[in-house]
UniProtKB/TrEMBL annotation:
Residue ranges with Low complexity bias: 20-34
Signal sequence coordinates: none
Protein name (Swiss-Prot/TrEMBL): Negative regulator of flagellin synthesis
UniProt GO BP: bacterial-type flagellum organization; negative regulation of DNA-templated transcription
UniProt feature, compositional bias: Polar residues: 1-19
Natural source organism: Pusillimonas noertemannii
Amino acid sequence: MKITPTPHNSTLNAISSVRSPAGAQAGSSASSKSTVELSPAARQLASLQNGDNDVDLERVQQIRDAIASGQLKVDAGRVADSLLASVRELLK
């Protein structure tokens, strides 16, 4: 059995010609407008993708300062309890 490569563009052109109505060109009709309404859950998910809320930079700086000054104290028991709690949550 011989496998021959097919040009990638021809596949895409075939798909786009099937999806496009006959004689229609993209952007040819300035009067047709599409609107999309997002559900509240979709809006919330979209806001999470923003990335601005990913890291609390002020808290990061506080931790950096505590490490640099030698004031950071790690409570191993608290860390262990948190790890166990998250594992229990994952196993539910």
